[in-house]
Amino acid sequence: MSALDKIKKMLKGHEDKASKGIDKAGGMVDKRTQGKHKGHVDTAQDKLKQQLGTDRGQDGPPRS
Asked: Is 57 helix (H, G, I), strand (E, B) or coil?
């Protein structure tokens, strides 16, 4: 079992909290870099949410 699979298993049922944590971490990076890398941070956040399955919108299914 890969590390990513283990993380996904741990996050099962807590996707909303994981998504908030990813957003908060991205906000901290943006603040520390004064927004210089905002595009890269946003892309990384989106990809991480997608990998972890936390990219669910308000209505349910993952965004594509």
From this structure: coil
pTM: 0.72
From the centroid of its chain, how far is CA 63? Answer: 12
Average pLDDT over residues 4-32: 91
Residue 34 covered by a domain: yes
**Could you report the per-residue pLDDT of 26-51, keeping only the tens digit for each?**
999 999 999 999 999 999 999 999 98
The answer to whether the Cα torsion of 60, 20, 17, 8 is positive or negative is positive
Q: Looking at the 3D structure of the chain, how many domains does it have?
A: 1
Q: Does residue 10 belong to any structural domain of this protein?
A: no
49 and 41 Cβ atoms separated by less than 8 Å: no
